[in-house]
Design a protein that fits this description.
This protein is α+β, with helices and mostly antiparallel strands. It is 31% helix and 25% strand. It is built from eight helices and 15 strands. It binds adenosine-5'-triphosphate (ATP) and magnesium ion.
Length: 301
């Protein structure tokens, strides 16, 4: 029987759903903490030790990469890189996670690929940050400030005057400022499309306060996305080379779509409750379809 690793420090509801979905396909899975893995070098080929596995697993589902010091986070990602080099099918792999964990890099790659991205400034210079904000305010806009490594709406702020610009400490030394896009509906809303294996398998509108993250109290409503939104979500997932992704979009009052975020380790509980789509089952099927006979170690950089 194939045994897969599910990397997480906190299996919870998502871990249980995944494990059940893999079991349904005749696959056992074990929860593993990335920090408990180690990389062994200098004894022939590089090896990765994964607790509970004699050899690297055929596949690993990355459900969480815990925060920590820069060294700890880089080490955890390096374990993913080393596993991929050893032939494990890492879902989403370390590079995909790196591309999306940093909002500045995500927006840079998406905008560069022609995906509509609201006017954004990423800078470590407070004067450049202030100048962008002033220019936007002069143009009749407000601005959203987001932590580069944030998620779930944490510390996302709307700024409507110069005095509200976060100081260097609050911005962790780097400002990510983006034009506020007023949504088309009566209240602020955004769209989350869940893409698996290049297909948008479920979509919700999220509303109820601002920011419209479930973690901030927003509610998910099942909805049929516009063809254009589906197309953007699929393209963004492809540009960032992700096996699956949670893609956040906004639709402005003129009906134009803007892509604001792609998440490589998205939660799906709210989305599943609203849509009834069995996300874990789709993820398990997609991952199982991608496990190939063990290949020779490959270049990953
Ligand atoms: N440019 C914008 N205009 C209007 N609202 C925005 C804008 N950017 C973000 N928001 C609001 O803030 C919320 C959070 O933003 P975003 O999705 O970029 O970060 P996050 O949710 O914290 O990160 P992640 O999606 O990785 O968990 C969005 O769902 C939306 O409600
Ligand atoms: Mg988001």
């Amino acid at each position: 029987m194939t045994t897969l690793a599910i990397f997480t420090d906190d299996p919870g509801w998502h871990g249980a759903r995944l494990r059940a979905a893999f079991a349904e396909r005749g696959c056992e899975s074990r929860f593993v903490t990335l920090s408990e893995c180690s990389i062994r070098l200098g004894t022939g080929e590089a090896e990765v030790s994964v607790p509970g596995f004699g050899a690297p697993p055929a596949a690993a589902f990355v459900r969480g990469v815990a925060g920590g010091t820069l060294e700890e986070v880089v080490f955890r990602l390096n374990v993913l890189h080393a596993l991929k080099a050893a032939g494990t099918r890492v879902y989403n792999d370390g590079r995909a996670i790196e591309r999306s964990v940093d909002k500045g890099l995500t927006s840079f790659l998406l905008a560069g690929a022609g995906i509509p991205t609201p006017p954004t400034r990423v800078t470590a210079n407070p004067e450049v940050a202030a100048a962008f904000l002033e220019e936007e305010l002069r143009g009749g806009h407000t601005v959203v400030s987001k932590p580069l490594f944030g998620s779930q709406g944490k510390d996302v702020m709307r700024i409507d005057r110069l005095a509200r610009l976060p100081d260097a400490q609050a911005a962790n030394g780097v400002w990510y400022l983006q034009r506020f896009v007023a949504s088309a509906g009566r209240e602020p809303e955004d769209w989350r499309l869940f893409v698996v294996g290049g297909r948008a398998v479920a979509a919700v509108r999220r509303s109820g306060g601002w920011p419209t993250n479930v973690a901030c109290g927003a509610r998910c409503h099942a909805a049929v996305p516009a063809v254009e939104a589906v197309d953007l979500a699929r393209r963004a997932t492809r540009v960032l080379d992700m096996d699956y992704a949670g893609v956040d979009l906004l639709r402005d009052r003129a009906g134009a779509w803007w892509l604001i975020e792609v998440n490589s380790i998205p939660a799906w509980r709210g989305l599943e409750e609203a849509t009834g789509v069995d996300v874990a089952r789709l993820l398990a099927a997609d991952l199982m379809g991608r496990i190939r006979p063990r290949q020779r170690p490959q270049e990953v950089v």
